[in-house]
C-alpha cells in the first residue's frame, strides 16, 4: 500500500512482521510505542501480535479511532478496515487483559472506545472478511458473559472484579442476538468490562423487546438512535418512548418507514405530533434526523421548528412534502447548516423549482451530500439542476438514480460535475434511452433490470471518459440499481429475508382462513 510512513513506522512494521519474534519481546517495549506497534500490526494483519498488545496494554485509554486514523507516523486511515482477524484479536486480547495474572497496579486501562470503526463495502485486508457492527455487538456481549462465568467458576483473584473498564460501542440488536445482549447489559455492573452504548440500532425486533432493551442501554448516554425496517413503531409508540425516557445527548435519530402518517390524522394525532416535536426540541440536541417514507404533508414546520439546534443531516425521502413544506425548509435556519440532504421521491423540478433552488443556494456553503432519487428530473431540467448545483462547491456525493434522463443529458451533466472540486462519488441512473420505449417512471423493481446492457456499458464508458479527460479519476461513478451499499443490511440480510418469508407466510395463512370462513 503506497502511503507516507515515517522511519519509526517502517521500523515498527519490521518488528511486528515476525509475530513470534515480536511477541517474545513486547515486555521490553516502551509504553509509548504500543499505539505505533498496534497500527503497524493492524496494517499487516498480525492477529497474534494485536492480541498480545491489547492483553498487555499499558495506557489509560484504547481508542480505535485515534489508533487507526491518520497519524504523523502513518498517514493511511485504517478506520474503514473492519478486518475479522484484527478485530477478533482485539476483543480476545481485551478479555485476556482482564484474566492476565499480572498485578493489578500495572493495569491502568480505563476506557476502550470501539466507536470509531466504519463499515464499508470493500475490505482491503488479505482475509477479505469483515466483522460488522452486528458481529461486534455479538462478540463483545459473549465475551462479557463468558468472563463472568469463568471468574465465578474458577474463583480467581477477587481483585479482578475491581477492574472497571468502560467499553464504548455502537450496538446493533436484532431478534437473533437480542437475548445475549440483554443478558450482557443486565449483568454489566458485575463485569470488569462494562458495555457503554453510544449508538443503538434496532432492526427486526418486536416493540416490547425494543422498549425493554433501550432502557437497559441507558438512554441518557445515547448519541445516536436508529430504529429501522422491521420495528413496527408508530406515532403513539414514539410519543410513549419520549415521555418515558430521556435522551439529553441524542444527536442523531432515524425512524422506520410510516412512523408518521398525516393522511389518517385526527385531532389527537395532531396533539401527539406537537408533543413529539416539543420533546425533540426540549430534551435532545438533534443535528441529524431521518424519517424516510413517513407521510409528512404540510407538517414539516410543526416537526422541525421546535428544534433548538440546526440540522446538519435531513432525510425526508418519499415523505410527500408539499410546496409549504419545501418553502419552510428553504427559509428555515436549518437550511444554512445542511451538510447532507435527501429529498428523493419528490417531483422537485415541476412542482417547486424556485423553492428547490433557494434551498440549494442557502445550503451551498456546507452541503456535502445530496440525494435526489426518483425526483422526475428530465432532460429539460438539466440546466436548472446545474444552476442549483453550481454554488455547491463543497459537494462530495451526488446520487440521482431513478430519474428519466437520456444519455445526452447525462453527458452534459457530467461535464459540469467535473467542475465541483471536492466531488468523490456519483450515482447516476441507467439512461432512459437504454430502456424499452414507453417505460414509465418510477420504474418498478420487475422492470428495473430490463434494459439494453451493452448500450448502458457504452454510455458508462463515455461518462467515465469525460471524467478522465477532465483529470477527475478521483470521482467514482456507478449505477447501483437497488440502492447504495448498506453495511447493516448486508450483515443481517439472511435474518431479514427469513423474517419477510415468515411474514408473507402468516399473511397468506390469514387470507386463506378468511376465505374459508366466508
UniProtKB/TrEMBL annotation:
Q: Which GO terms describe its cellular component?
A: cytoplasm
UniProt-recorded name of the protein: Leucine-rich repeat-containing protein 14B
Report the source organism: Tricholaema leucomelas
Report keywords, A-Z.
Leucine-rich repeat, Repeat
The family note in this entry says: Belongs to the PRAME family. LRRC14 subfamily.
* InterPro entries cross-referenced by the UniProt entry: LRR_dom_sf, LRRC14/PRAME
Q: What SUPFAM superfamilies does the database record attribute to this sequence?
A: RNI-like (SSF52047)
Does this entry carry the keyword Repeat? yes
Amino acid at each position: 500500500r503506497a502511503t507516507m510512513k515515517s522511519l519509526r513506522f517502517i521500523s515498527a512494521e519490521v518488528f511486528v512482521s515476525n509475530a513470534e519474534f515480536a511477541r517474545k519481546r513486547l515486555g521490553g517495549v516502551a509504553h509509548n510505542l504500543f499505539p505505533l506497534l498496534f497500527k503497524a500490526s493492524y496494517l499487516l494483519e498480525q492477529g497474534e501480535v494485536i492480541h498480545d498488545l491489547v492483553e498487555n496494554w499499558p495506557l489509560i485509554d484504547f481508542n480505535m479511532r485515534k489508533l487507526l486514523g491518520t497519524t504523523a507516523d502513518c498517514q493511511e486511515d485504517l478506520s474503514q478496515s473492519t478486518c475479522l482477524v484484527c478485530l477478533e484479536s482485539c476483543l480476545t486480547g481485551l478479555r485476556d487483559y482482564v484474566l492476565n495474572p499480572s498485578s493489578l497496579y500495572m493495569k491502568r486501562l480505563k476506557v476502550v472506545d470501539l466507536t470509531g470503526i466504519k463499515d464499508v463495502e470493500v475490505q482491503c485486508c488479505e482475509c477479505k472478511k469483515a466483522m460488522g457492527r452486528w458481529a461486534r455487538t455479538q462478540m463483545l456481549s459473549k465475551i462479557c458473559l463468558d468472563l463472568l462465568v469463568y471468574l465465578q467458576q474458577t474463583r480467581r483473584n477477587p481483585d479482578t472484579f475491581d477492574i472497571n473498564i468502560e467499553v464504548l460501542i455502537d450496538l446493533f440488536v436484532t431478534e437473533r442476538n437480542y437475548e445475549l445482549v440483554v443478558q450482557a447489559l443486565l449483568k454489566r455492573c458485575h463485569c470488569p468490562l462494562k458495555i457503554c452504548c453510544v449508538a443503538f440500532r434496532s432492526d427486526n425486533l418486536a416493540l416490547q423487546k425494543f422498549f425493554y432493551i433501550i432502557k437497559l442501554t441507558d438512554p441518557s448516554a445515547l448519541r445516536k438512535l436508529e430504529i429501522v425496517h422491521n420495528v413496527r413503531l408508530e406515532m403513539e409508540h414514539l410519543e410513549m418512548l419520549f415521555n418515558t425516557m430521556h435522551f439529553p445527548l441524542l444527536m442523531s435519530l432515524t425512524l422506520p418507514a410510516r412512523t408518521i402518517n398525516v393522511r389518517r390524522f385526527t385531532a389527537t394525532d395532531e396533539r401527539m405530533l406537537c408533543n413529539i416535536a416539543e420533546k425533540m426540541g426540549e430534551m435532545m440536541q438533534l443535528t441529524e434526523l431521518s424519517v424516510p417514507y413517513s407521510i409528512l404533508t404540510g407538517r414539516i414546520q410543526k416537526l422541525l421548528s421546535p428544534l433548538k439546534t440546526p440540522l446538519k443531516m435531513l432525510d425526508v425521502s418519499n415523505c410527500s412534502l408539499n410546496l409549504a413544506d419545501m418553502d419552510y425548509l428553504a427559509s428555515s435556519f436549518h437550511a444554512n447548516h445542511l451538510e447532507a440532504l435527501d429529498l428523493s421521491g419528490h417531483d422537485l423540478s415541476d412542482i417547486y423549482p424556485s423553492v428547490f433552488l433557494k434551498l440549494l443556494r442557502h445550503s451551498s456553503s456546507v452541503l456535502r451530500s445530496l440525494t435526489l432519487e426518483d425526483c422526475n428530473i428530465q432532460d429539460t431540467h438539466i440546466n436548472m439542476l446545474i444552476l442549483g448545483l453550481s454554488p455547491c462547491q463543497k459537494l462530495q456525493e451526488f446520487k440521482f438514480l431513478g430519474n428519466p434522463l437520456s444519455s445526452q443529458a447525462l453527458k452534459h451533466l457530467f461535464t459540469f460535475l467535473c467542475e465541483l472540486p471536492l466531488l468523490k462519488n456519483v450515482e447516476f441512473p441507467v439512461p432512459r434511452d437504454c430502456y424499452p420505449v414507453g417505460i414509465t417512471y418510477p420504474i418498478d423493481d420487475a422492470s428495473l433490470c430490463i434494459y439494453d446492457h451493452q448500450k448502458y456499458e457504452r454510455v458508462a464508458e463515455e461518462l467515465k471518459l469525460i471524467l478522465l479527460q477532465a483529470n477527475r479519476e478521483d470521482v467514482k461513478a456507478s449505477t447501483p440499481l437497488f440502492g447504495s451499499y448498506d453495511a447493516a443490511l448486508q450483515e443481517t440480510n439472511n435474518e431479514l429475508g427469513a423474517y419477510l418469508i415468515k411474514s408473507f407466510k402468516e399473511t397468506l395463512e390469514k387470507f386463506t382462513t378468511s376465505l374459508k370462513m366466508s
